[in-house]
Design brief:
Largest sheet: 10 strands, antiparallel
Shape: elongated
Structural class: mainly beta
Helix content: 10-25%
Number of strands: 10
């Protein structure tokens, strides 16, 4: 099931990209932003309140050559994710539900770069709080305002298998008795849609301020879950990033 889910996720993205595109080769340089800061958003999937928390990021990958030319086409790269823990005692509306530990996610991502546009699909397996298969399909567009300020707009669909949705949106019979929420067994598939605006302002050639505003909305079985207090899931992130460069 997981294998089929991953194949379907990556294949859907590939079908949406130009058939004549070539896989990127002869890469001699890779660079990306690694940063940390604060996040202001829902405390768990479906929370109707917002709270401050830590934000770690690794993003804005560029593959190119030593002369600075950015490569165009397909690329297969690692993909990582993180979901914080969910403690029932921290939220009155979750009392009676099982706690969920934090989760690390690892997998692969397919990028297709065409000019300032990047389309992508990712599939990751969870290790920790959930052991499901998750991923996203999306596209982002880059606007270079000047030599210091760059903006990105992003539209994205998020997907999870049955194991993932059961963990974060399901309610077992025992949990129903303890919490008063109705029992619920959601199916996997698309569980959320996001649109985002991201900005990077360079303080030095290697150090930047990163900011991101995201509007997310829970969909389908996830949005119908009794755990969900609000389908709308806005989030603001702000941090400092360092640009890392690697040559091969």
């Amino acid at each position: 099931m997981r294998c089929l889910f991953a194949i379907a996720l990556l294949s859907t993205s590939a079908l949406a990209m130009p058939a004549h595109a070539q896989w990127i080769n002869n890469i001699s340089e890779a660079s990306f932003d690694v940063g940390a800061g604060i996040s202001y958003g829902p405390g768990y999937f479906g929370d109707d309140d917002v709270e401050l928390g830590p934000w770690g990021t690794m993003r804005n990958l560029t593959l190119g050559t030593e002369d600075g030319e950015e490569k165009q086409g397909f690329a297969l790269i690692p993909s990582f994710g993180y979901i914080g823990d969910r403690k029932a005692d921290d939220h009155e509306e979750l009392r009676g539900l099982d706690d969920i530990d934090w989760t690390g996610e690892v997998g692969l991502r397919v990028n297709y770069v065409a000019g300032d546009s990047t389309s992508y699909a990712a599939a990751r397996v969870g290790i920790g709080g959930h052991d499901g298969l998750v991923g996203e399909i999306g596209t982002k567009y880059r606007f270079i305002i000047n030599d210091k300020l760059t903006l990105w707009t992003t539209a994205e669909l998020q997907l999870g298998d049955d194991s993932f949705t059961d963990t974060y949106f399901g309610v077992t019979e025992d949990e129903s008795v303890a919490s008063g929420l109705r029992s619920y067994d959601p199916s996997g598939g698309i569980y959320a849609a996001n649109v985002a605006l991201e900005a990077r302002y360079s303080l030095t050639p290697k150090t930047s301020i990163l900011g991101k505003i995201t509007y997310g909305r829970l969909l389908y079985d996830a949005g119908d879950s009794p755990v969900v207090q609000d389908r709308n899931q806005p989030e603001i992130n702000l941090g400092i990033a360092r640009r890392l460069n690697f040559r091969f």
